[in-house]
Design goal:
The chain has 80 residues and is an all-alpha fold. Helix content is 75%, strand content 0%. The chain has 3 helices and no strands. The two termini are 35 Å apart.
Length: 80
């Protein structure tokens, strides 16, 4: 499970990448880096909050996970 600090770092780096790409998309649609940047900033803030909440909620769900002890006991299928 990720620590809160790791989760925060992942969220920030993801949003920086999104901010840059959405600024470029906004510029292509509007012809203005100012308008494109404004759209990207608002989208980045909303996206950051949604991503952080999404990851936090999923970290509390155990479905689809197994512990290290369980992974050692799982053996690959020997079907040919």
């Amino acid at each position: 499970m990720d620590t809160a600090l790791r989760l925060l770092a992942k969220s920030i780096t993801w949003q920086v990448l999104g901010l840059v790409s959405m600024t470029l998309v906004g510029y292509l649609f509007t012809g203005s880096f100012t308008a494109g940047g404004g759209i990207a900033l608002v989208g980045s803030g909303v996206g950051f909050c949604c991503y952080f909440l999404h990851e936090t909620l999923w970290s509390k769900i155990s479905w689809g996970r197994f512990s290290d002890d369980q992974s050692a006991s799982i053996k690959p299928s020997s079907r040919a």
